[in-house]
Specification:
The chain is an alpha/beta fold. Helix content is 54%, strand content 17%. The protein contains 13 helices and 12 strands. The strands form 3 sheets. It has a 5-stranded parallel beta sheet with strand order 5-4-3-6-7. Strands 8-9-10-12-11 form a 5-stranded mixed β-barrel. Strands 1-2 form a two-stranded antiparallel sheet.
């Protein structure tokens, strides 16, 4: 492969050397120094040697550059790539329009389109990448005739995941269901905390950390989610929760968590928060007093004679006088429902006792 590259570049160098010799001879710059055949031969040899020398390094540099560019393109979200291409093409079009009257300028007129194309193309690319989220506003505008406002994609705020919600794992199912719109943001300091937990000497913490990394890896591979890992950090802040609140303010995003304390801090700071536990409580089936349920009593309750069972969704049922039914599945009548910060509790009594009364 290296020999082939050297041959190709040597041929290109020799051809360029020949062209350079003809250009020099026609200009008369070498008149009186060397004859034509010597000048042509000298330029061809120099071009040949330069091509042999620089060929492999140039190819290696192109390989490294293409590999790095491929990695960057694969990590860049599709909507940003589209915005960048639109900006690049727009920059080239503007450069072409501007350069038409400049072609008449002597000496530099032929080079101005290239220079303008590079400069304006670069600026167009940068603007397109950074203003991708604003592009829908160009096409989705207020419908003044009907008084209706069309929602734009830029209104979808990013969702910033904290460590607890990643370890919890339910975020994967919620994202798959399509209820979360926009990008899922995983800050670098949250990922670092997950890795620290996964490397813990405590078996329980280590398993929780590894579970979180597995869940995150699972979400990244799914087509229904757009996960972005950002390296933005705040060196002057030590607490991860405080960093999350600060990042949410800077990005205009929402914090996704199941941490009660972080939930309260976000509310105090005026940061929108999505609590997975609150969502789970909201979608549980509604149970009203007087309804019949079948429940397996599995253990004693706190009060004398009480038994405790659980529904399929984890809701605890306290069965009055249910201690004697431990290990059995019985039909109970709901007497009351108590909603607490930790969840919901259902109080009931065996239906057999109701009949006896």
């Amino acid at each position: 492969m290296v020999i082939f590259v050297r041959i190709v570049f040597a041929a290109i160098g020799a051809a360029l050397g020949y062209s350079g010799a003809l250009l020099v001879l026609n200009s008369g710059a070498m008149a009186g120094f060397f004859d034509e055949s010597y000048t042509v031969g000298l330029f061809i040899i120099v071009g040949f040697l330069v091509g042999v020398a620089v060929g492999p390094p140039i190819v290696q540099g192109l390989k490294r550059g293409s590999k790095k560019a491929t990695q960057i393109l694969l990590k860049t979200p599709t909507h940003e790539l589209v915005g960048g291409m639109i900006g690049l093409v727009s920059g080239w079009v503007i450069a072409l329009i501007i350069s038409i009257p400049l072609l008449r300028i002597p000496y530099v007129g032929d080079y101005l389109p290239i220079i303008l194309g590079v400069i304006l193309g670069y600026f167009g690319l940068m603007v397109g990448l950074r203003k991708t989220d604003d592009l829908p506003d160009v096409f989705l505008r207020t419908d003044r005739g009907s008084g209706k406002i069309r929602a734009s994609a830029s209104e979808v705020s990013p969702k910033i995941l904290d460590t607890s919600v990643i370890i919890d794992g339910r975020i994967a199912d919620i994202t798959r269901s399509g209820f979360l719109e926009g990008d899922l943001i995983v800050p670098g300091f949250v990922l670092e905390e997950l890795q620290h937990i996964a490397d813990s000497s405590d078996v329980l913490k280590r398993n929780r950390g590894r579970r979180g990394l597995d869940i995150l890896n699972k979400i990244q591979k799914e087509p229904y989610a757009s996960v972005r890992i950002i390296e933005q950090d705040y060196g002057d802040i030590n607490e991860v929760d405080t960093k999350l609140v600060k990042l949410a303010k800077d990005m205009g995003g929402k914090v996704v968590t199941n941490d009660y304390n972080l939930n309260k801090v976000c509310e105090l700071q005026g940061v929108p928060v999505l609590n997975i536990n609150e969502l789970a409580n909201s979608v549980k089936p509604v149970v009203l007093p007087g309804e019949e349920l079948k429940v397996q009593v599995i253990k004693d309750g706190k009060e004398q004679g009480q038994g405790v069972g659980y529904l399929d969704d984890g809701t605890m049922i306290v069965v009055d006088s249910g201690r004697r039914f431990i290990g059995q599945t019985v039909t109970v009548l709901v007497t009351s429902v108590l909603q607490t910060a930790a969840g919901r509790m259902i109080f009931a009594k065996p239906k057999a006792m109701e009949r006896a009364l």
